[in-house]
Design goal:
Layout (H helix, E strand, L loop, with lengths): L2 H18 L8 E7 L4 E4 L15 E4 L4 E3 L8 H10 L5 E5 L2 H9 L8 H4 L14 H5 L2 H12 L10 E4 L3 E6 L2 H24 L8 H12 L9
Antiparallel strand pairs: 1-2, 1-5, 2-3, 3-4, 5-7, 6-7
Length: 231
Amino acid sequence: MSELQQLREQVYEANMEIVRRGLVLYTFGNASGILRGDNLVAIKPSGVPYEELRPADLVVVRLDGSPVEGTLRPSSDLPTHLVLYRAFAEIGGVVHTHSTFATSWAQAGREIPCLGTTHADYFHGPVPVTPPLDAGDIEGDYEAKTGDAVVRRFANLDPGSFSAVLVHGHGPFCWGPTPAKAAHAAVVLEEIARMAYYTITLNAGARPISRALHDKHFLRKHGPGRYYGQP
């Protein structure tokens, strides 16, 4: 199997995973992956129902957006994915959903505070939210400007320590070193968004956990001396 075919299979599985985990209603989402050596991106085609999707249906483009393979129109969010791939060289997959709880935080324009160790295991701080796009950005190259807004929000953040962002009024974009890891990040994000919502509902005065506890949980899993899991 060629590297490109392997990428198609990986991206297909990432798309199926976000459906299996209940993050997608109808066609509300997309996953992509990149073959860095050749700068080729595979992404779900626009508006194709997931139950009809096959690996061969995925659209392949170059990093500049020019078409390579596929007869279907790529996801309308493709320009956002491409901006993220160009800006964050370490990522290999991107997932966008409109999952209920993460999108609710995005629509509220609120970052997700780290209220417990489940969050701390995956994000080294609150999940960031972008500022709203202005009218010029929306009326222009909207999807690419969405990606630009994410990149600006990460000017002082490490995309390796925060595998997701909430786009104000829109929804989450998640990423990882592979399409599967990006899908995993989307699933985890939805769960911590749900937990945070319920926590604040039960106790409006709930506050983030201490920096020491946050660092301990994140670094034991992701830091240079990590000891979570097997070597």
